[in-house]
# Entry
Amino acid sequence: MPAVWLNAVICKTVKSISEIRADFPILGRKIYDKPLVYFDNSATTQKPLSVINAVNEVFTTYNSNIHRGVHALSDQASEKYEDAREKVRSFINAEGKEEIIFTTGTTSSINGIAFSFGERYIKTGDEVIISHLEHHSNIVPWQMMCERKGAKLRVIPINDAGEILFDEYLKLLSPKTKIVAVTQVSNALGTILPIKKIIDTAHSMNIPVLIDGAQGIQHGLVDVIEMDCDFYAFSGHKIYAPTGIGVLYGKTKWLSKLPPYQGGGDMVANVTFEKTTYNELPFKFEAGTTNFAGAIGLGAAIDYVKSIGLRDIEKREQELLSYATERLSAIKELKIYGISNRKIPVISFLLENIHQYDTGMVLDKLGIAVRTGTHCAQPIMERLGIEGTVRASMCFYNTMEEIDTLGTGIEKVVKMFSK
Amino acid sequence: MSVNEVQDTIIEEFSAFEDWMDKYDLLIDFGKELHEIDPLFKVHDYLIDGCQSKVWLHPEFNGNKIKFTADSDALITRGLVALLIKVLTDRTPDEIISADLYFIDKIGLKQNLSPTRSNGLLSMIRQMKLYAMAYKAKIQK
# Structure
């Protein structure tokens, strides 16, 4: 078969950028009479119609509590919920569905593991390793657990480019280390961490690793078997799904040994006032009525992302990143924070002598949505000696023209505040 | 001028501008007119931490009226701070306590006072009123 034909067979119908944008109704909005430029994708992503319709369908056609009913609607809802679990499993290539636990988001996934793992395995004098690039969600739960258990939190330092110092990580590892919990991608700077190396090194000392995938899951292929992480946490709303749904992946060998962190309905096998036995995986960790509508929405989001193709998404986003870096670097008053050559499409920056809040306020009035502040990662800001940045975070539905609009907007800000 | 008369002049000045950029320009100009706060008071004790931008506020009471000085590290916030000072400085505690600050809404900057904006402005107004209440209680003793 000629190569061209072969390509046509292998590649799905490639959607044009305008077709992609048409899938996201909100992108057509105007803000202060200007076309919306949405560059706050690291905070949350917009939702395609297929996700909105999937959630809508739950409530208009088969809403009913899952796993409990004897009636048709409950069966249908349960089936769709379990289909969504299978979609997640296949998306991250987990071995079994029992390794996929639905939570409310990355934060609750990490809190759950920090609690359960702490209860089961951490004692006084033990150590937990995190990095200086963590979001507060991957700092505070471990800190709380360490305080409770008399353990110590150790932090992998970073260089000025915003990359972890791998040699320092090696020095921190010791027989006292009981778990390593690091982010896949820095939310504040966009740096992609060398997680495979981090995991392999920890495993050589039999130390398990949790990966905070909140900023990683939507930007490239995640294969938990290849990565070999012990736990992986992510949020649905960062990957075009609704808010309030998240995933905790854990290897069965760990999840089966860990105690549940929440008690309630559905997570039990048998309850008497004397003793309760727990349900099997994954239900042991899904107490109460879960956000099944959100899970079904997440399933639809995964279908959507797959239809575009993760490799295509990654390629397009790297093009956006390199254009944005070039365009914004041309503004001489602008300094980019986080200059690793392995980044997701995030530009964290400051303008000379202009407060990040002022920049954000003016950009807003130009219809450009960015985030300003510490991005829930105060330790990084402290390390870089700044109080915050302006963060423009892009994803595959953004365009080069929008980057130009941002560039022009920033030039306006510079002019306005340097008078 | 009364509290409301000052508010009305501010509203009039802003009414000349339709475009947001012009409104912000005017705010920045107001910020420039703000009397410098004594560096002695630009310390943690007088800081209203708004997370996104910082505001320092210092009251001085002469037994009758309160004089406020303030500053912010962000210029747009500083402009808003300047407007609040313009309206509420050199007033008796009662005037401050009973002040209804309608001008912020009228000039289209109400969103800046939303608690989620965390720019310190809402806390600044609360703090000004708290100082007024504290000084009022002091006189009554």
